[in-house]
Amino acid sequence: MCETEQMTKHLLGGKNVSLDEYAAYLRVLGAKPFLTAKEASTLFGIGYNRMSSIMKRPDANFIMKVGNRKQTYIHRETFEKWLMAKTADVEDNTKSN
After folding, report:
1. Quick one: which H or E segment has residue 20?
2. Do residues 6 and 18 touch, judged by C-beta distance below 8 A?
3. Interval 34-59 mean pLDDT
């Protein structure tokens, strides 16, 4: 790759950013207490449709709805704990089989 070429990352919504800008964006998302589904999808590397289906699960204790329009947010720290617990469950099931 020549020096004038710069690696980019495609974000949801159609924006291309440099890898440095993408890293800065992930740092900002990692510090936010509440995330939209799109932001959580980007931060955790989960597809948007998969994130939407996770948010509809009955055990999704990390969801917060705000306002009359019922805007939905994900509490980042609670989601991280939930995700780690689900990952541990899957690993335990894999080892026992």
Report:
1. helix 19-31
2. yes
3. 93
